[in-house]
Write a sequence for this structure.
């Protein structure tokens, strides 16, 4: 699968930056659980994955908060914001029936960042993001576990419900800073039945049962990364795709509770080299190692300080 490393890294960066953009609105906390599911090693396209008894689960707690440094609104109601963001994700993994331990028992991603949002003209905005953090399997923290990323996204606001953003993002994942293109899309509809597309992170179909209750069907993508200290392939990329039923209860004007029950449709842990020369290597026509589909559950709290 040509350029798989490139695509996976770019997708993880996009998810990370889009999540940080959402943190302008306040605070979020989520606990999720994926039960043990069978591990399927890398296979060639068209071949059936090898059946093994090796299994792993995932218990994860993630949260993020923004601390506004300054916030101004112009005469057209557009915000000019400077904020510090704190974010983190901790995962506990139970690995079963592996002859040799393949995956870590723990993963930690924790970062601090700076964000700036400002209007550019009548329908354009600029979003600047920069962050540095520790991305580790907790077997010892070194300079290799520190990743720096940032980006400048230029956002075209076509109408109150549609925005498209493009711009460069930078990461030192492969040692030297690399510049990659980024794109995200925010689109939503209003009314009793609602659709929300937040590319590349989330798609929602919602029914507004009352002022305090929304019944939603969601599909979400999330990711984690870590330096695992292996000589050949030191970089671990974790990618997860889930879908499920998600009722949301508005507890007060700013605080809401989300409960999710559904399925983990796709879950992979891919080890790659951090050498730049290996970045664009052709992996051939292969399916990356992944885990079988299984159940998924989550509980989340969201404190909304206001819309962007």
């Amino acid at each position: 699968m040509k350029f798989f490393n490139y695509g996976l890294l770019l997708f993880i960066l996009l998810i990370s930056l889009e999540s940080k953009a959402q943190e302008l609105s306040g605070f979020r906390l989520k606990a999720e659980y994926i039960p043990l599911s069978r591990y399927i090693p890398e296979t060639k396209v068209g071949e059936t994955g090898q059946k093994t008894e090796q299994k792993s689960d995932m218990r994860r707690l993630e949260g993020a908060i923004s601390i506004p440094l300054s916030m101004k609104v112009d005469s057209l109601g557009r915000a000019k914001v400077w904020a510090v963001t704190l974010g983190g994700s901790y995962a506990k993994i139970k690995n079963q029936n592996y002859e040799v331990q393949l995956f870590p028992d723990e993963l930690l991603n924790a970062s601090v960042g700076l964000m700036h949002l400002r209007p550019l003209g009548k329908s354009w905005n600029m979003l600047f993001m920069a962050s540095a953090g520790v991305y580790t399997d907790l077997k010892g923290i070194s300079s290799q576990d520190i990743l720096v990323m940032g980006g400048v996204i230029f956002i075209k606001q076509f109408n109150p419900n549609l925005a498209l953003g493009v711009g460069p993002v930078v990461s030192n994942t492969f040692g030297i800073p690399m510049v990659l293109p980024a794109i995200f899309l925010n689109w939503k509809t209003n009314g009793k039945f609602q659709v929300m597309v937040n590319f590349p992170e989330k798609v929602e179909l919602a029914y507004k049962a009352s002022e305090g209750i929304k019944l939603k069907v969601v599909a979400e993508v999330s990711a984690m990364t870590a330096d695992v200290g292996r000589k050949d392939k030191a970089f671990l990329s974790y990618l997860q795709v889930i879908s499920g039923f998600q009722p949301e209860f508005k507890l007060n004007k700013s605080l809401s509770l989300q409960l999710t029950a559904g399925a983990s449709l796709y879950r992979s842990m891919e080890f790659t080299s951090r050498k730049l020369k290996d970045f664009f290597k052709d992996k051939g026509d292969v399916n990356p190692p992944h885990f079988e589909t299984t159940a998924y559950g989550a509980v989340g709290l969201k404190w909304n300080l206001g819309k962007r």
In short: The two ends are 38 Å apart (CA to CA). Residues 4-22 form the longest helix (19 residues). The mean pLDDT is 83. The first strand starts at residue 26 and ends at 40.
